[in-house]
Amino acid sequence: MSAYEWLFKMLKERGKVFCATILSGSAAGEKCIYTQDEMHGKPLWKEFLPELRRVEQTEVVSIGKREIFVELFQEAPRLVILGAGHVSQPVCQIGKILGFDITVVDDREEFVTRDRFPWADRLLCCDFDCLPEEMFGYENTFYVAVTRGHQGDRACARRVLSHPHAYFGMIGSRTKVKITKDALLEEGFSAEKVESMHSPIGLPLGGQLPEEIAVSIMAEIVKEKNRRYTGFADMDVANAVLGGEHGVMLTILSKSGSSPRGTGSKMFLGEGGTSYGSIGGGSIEFTACREAGHVSGVQVKEYDLSAKDASDLGMICGGHVRILFERI
C-alpha cells in the first residue's frame, strides 16, 4: 500500500491525520503518516517525531538539516453531546446547521428521543461510565459534557480524556469544575490533559438562556475547529488514489501574494490523462501539468509570479508558488 493510500485510508477511519514529507536530500519523498497515537513510516522518522508532534497545522518546517512538509488533514467533524437536558437541544440544532455529524447520549431513556432531538444522527441511552468504545477513535470529534451532575461529567471526562479527541468541553460553575479537575488529577490524569478541557465551556458571551449558552458553546467549538490551517484534497483525489490509479500528485508547498489556491491544495494527474482536484487553474496549473509528465520521482518546482512572469503565464495576480511533484 502506498503512503497516499495509507493517508486517505487512515483519514476516513480516524478523521484527523498528519502527513510529513521530506523535501530534499537522499530521503526526498519519504513520508510519515501519523495520528495522536499511531505512526506509519520508515525507522528514520522516529528521531523527527517528537518535533513533528509540535507542529499543529499545514506548513513547511526545518528539523535539523531537513526541510519537511507537514500536512494536517481533517474529515467531516463529529459532535458528541453527553447529556440530553435543556441546553443540549439547541446545541444539537446549531451543530447540525454547522454541518456536524451528531450523537446525543444520556442515561435516561425518556430524554434521548427523536421528538426531542430531530436533528441528531444518532441517539444513545447508556450510563456515562459505560460509553461504548466505538464512540472513540475518530480524532476529529468534539465532545460536550452537559450532564445533570458532577458525577456524570466526571465519568465523561474520564472516558474522553483517555482517547484522542479534537475538543472536550464541560459545563458547570468554576467550583464544580475545580472539584472535577482535582478528582481527575487524583485518579492519575496528567495536568496537561486535565487543563486541555474547555471548562467552564463556551466563549464568554454573557448568555443565560439555553439557546444563548448553546451559541457560546458552538462558537468556541467553531473557533477551536478553525484555529489550525489544514491541507485540502478534493475527495476525487482521495478516491482516485484509493482506487489504485497511478500518476503524479501536485501539491502547493507554499505561496505568497495572490496565488489562486492555498498551501496544501492538491491535484492528481492519472496516467490515463484524467485529472482530479486543482491547484488553482489558469496558466500556472496548465504549465505545472505539462511539466508533470517529465517527473520520474519527487521534485520541487518554483513559480515566481512577478509582474513579468505573471504576464508570461497569462496571470495578473502576482506572487510566488512552490509545488511538490510526486509520482505515485
Topology overview:
Elements: H1 3-14, E1 16-22, E2 31-34, E3 39-40, H2 49-52, E4 59-63, E5 66-74, E6 78-82, H3 88-97, E7 101-106, E8 122-125, E9 141-145, H4 150-160, E10 167-170, H5 174-186, H6 191-195, H7 210-225, H8 235-242, E11 247-256, E12 266-270, E13 275-277, H9 282-292, E14 298-305, H10 307-312, E15 319-327
Helix pairs in contact: 1-8, 3-7, 4-5
Q: What do these coordinates show?
A:
By secondary structure, this protein is of the alpha/beta class. The chain has ten helices and 15 strands. Helix 1 crosses helix 8 (235-242), helix 3 (88-97) crosses helix 7 and helix 4 (150-160) crosses helix 5.
Number of strands: 15
Q: Tell me the span between the first and last alpha carbons.
A: 11 Å
Q: What is the helical fraction, as a range of percent?
A: 25-40%
Class from secondary-structure proportions:
alpha/beta
Strand order of the largest sheet: 3-2-1-5-4
Shape: elongated
Question: Low-confidence stretches at least 5 residues in length (pLDDT < 50)?
Answer: none
- What is the number of helices? 10
- The radius of gyration computed from the alpha-carbon positions, rounded to a whole number of angstroms, is 23 Å
Order of helices and strands: HEEEHEEEHEEEHEHHHHEEEHEHE
Percentage of residues in strands = 25-35%
Largest sheet: 5 strands, antiparallel
Mean pLDDT: 90
